[in-house]
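Summary for the funding panel

The consortium committed to producing paired sequence-structure records for every protein in the target list. Below we show the first two records in order, beginning with the earlier of the two.
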Amino acid sequence: MKVKGSVVFVTGANRGLGLAFAREAVARGAAKVYAGMRNPDNFNEPGIIPVKLDVNDVDSIAAAARAAPDVTLLVNNAGIAELTQEHFTEHEVEQARRFFETNYFGMIRVTNAFHHALVAGKGAIVNILSDATWKVVPVLSPYSATKAAAWSYTNNIRALLSEKNVQVVGLHVGFLDTDLAKDVDLPKTDPRDVARQAYDVVDAGGSEVLADAGTRAIKSTLSAEVPAYIDPSVV
């Protein structure tokens, strides 16, 4: 499908990557752009319609789907992350449970809510994933698990929805230059560039975005005898 003329809904769109996706959709000529967020009261962006949305609240999701019944392009961006310092403890279990509720179950809930509109419009879904799916970073292990699960979900719904002419794109990326990673002293990618790459792939009818050099390097080792997820030093 084409972003121009589409009706876009971006979750977690009040800032960072989600806001970059919403702004880029406007710049590309989307017919309408909805921005899902937990608190839309003070949101004011030209050409972007704020919609109250909490991906952990089924009633909130249902209300958002009713408010935006014409969506043809869904960007599942909402997510949470934090470092894990207490491994092999109940704290790690509770942290993983919180991450899965938002990063995995939240993605499924929102996709389910917009499924019929996307099928009717022969639309597209962009799921924001991570290089952490394949990268060994122990302080991100619960977060990484949620992204690995979301990758599997993305691949499976792609197979299901291809029969209904709905495009499914998985976007893998490392650290972004946003508030979420402001304290991380590592190379970061501009979220505006990530949004542009993702929409280019949507326009081209593609299925996957590897949005930075580090992600591409890690992905290239997956078929190696010793991939990066076994020996991180190979990249």
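The next record, for a separate protein in the list, is shown here:
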Amino acid sequence: MQDDGTGSESGRRDAWLCHSADSVAIALHDLKASNWVEIGDDAIRLPEAIDKGHKLALRPHTPGEAIIRYGMPIGRATAPIAIGAHVHSHNLATALMGERDYGSFVATPPVLGQMPALGDWRGYRREDGRFATRNEIWVLPTVGCVAPLVETVAREAHARHAGLLDAVVGFGHPHGCSQLGDDLSGTRALLAALCDNPNAGGVVLVGLGCESNQLDELLAAIPARSHAKLRMMRAQDAGDERERLLALIAELAQEIGSLERDTAPASALTIGLKCGGSDALSGLTANPLLGRFSDQLAAAGGSLVLTEIPEIFGAEEALLARSTSRETFEQAGALVNRFKRYFLDQGQPVSENPSPGNIAGGITTLEEKSLGAVQKGGSAPLVDVIDYGGTASRPGLTLLEAPGNDAISSTALAAAGATMILFTTGRGTPLGFPVPTMKIASNSALAAAKPGWIDYDAGRVLAEGTDAVDEDFGRCLLATASGRPTAAETGGQRVIAIWKRGVTL
């Protein structure tokens, strides 16, 4: 992100330039027709009103000409565009196509340089050496038939064991029966990986008894290091299933309730990166803030997980260029193309994004959305690519197979081993996920309007600059990792969602 002093005669900054090569700037508040906007040494008089977060042209564009933001094309003009004109869906369209050949791997490892140290935090050390940000019991159903049972009993157990644990949470879902083949395998892999998350100090798996997703097969998919913390129950065989489930939770609570936090290094963090309900400021404030943090964490030896593969389309070259090996480069390119084929096989264009909320906030094309979204990963080296339900195991940035849907992708991040999720948003959402989900607003208006949703105001960057905000954000993040509840935790907004891709019987 680049600040070139874009502003007005009153001294208030009116627009923001992301990169010196850009042909558009972003309005930082509603601008009226005939307003003058200063761009460096020049001034532009607006021929029309520009809404906050929307783009204004810095030079004329002819039909077919590339429009540049973040120093990269975000699509092509579909009509003549005058200097100062509003640039949006009426005169800008995607240039995305289908699958691509990403060429040959060239080793260009990113140089992160000298950065401020993140410092230590306070976490729970597990027997396998990993650290957790929470000490909780998770109750997971193998099948949707027992999901309401799991959720109601977990709420009762949470009240019974208050003060002994950070939480007892039941995560219902509608899957696990009437599934076949790869679809059933995906459900099983996702649940097995959730059982292995360090934040789950204990896990109770609850089956019905007759479902496709049988407990024995699920147990076989769970890493051996997590078997000791598991308890299992088949509701059809349990007699009084509520009392049996409460007893299993109580047994685990006694085993792990005495655990205390210990000093942990930044390298012990595994952080999931996510954005949802984005606006045009997400790529100016919140996502670059996460990018600078990602560089710090990668430099400290920590792990980051990036997903939402459809929201990489149009920005994948910049990401693939950071691959640390030929294998990673080829796997990442294959994953992006596989996801594009997933769209095309369903008769959908690969550019079927942004969402209506994104568009209302000023984002026009998927290229624009993607170029803003991938900034969450900063310049961290791309070290690995993992399938849906896989686990991140290497320091640096891992690319995870999952769609853009907030609940599905965030659940996949937790399953991949993230013990905390950083979730940027320009329009807001109350939803939280299995691990602490820190909501970061791209604009101060959202942070002020929704304090029950938002944990951090990245809009402050526009007024205070990056250095002060980066330092404050680091403190806030480490405090959250060390036990300070997120807004979603306080509000009880925690869910899982499983990616359903196959036939239902």
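Regarding this second record: The chain has three domains: 15-93, 136-258, 263-490. The chain is about 30% helix and 20% strand.
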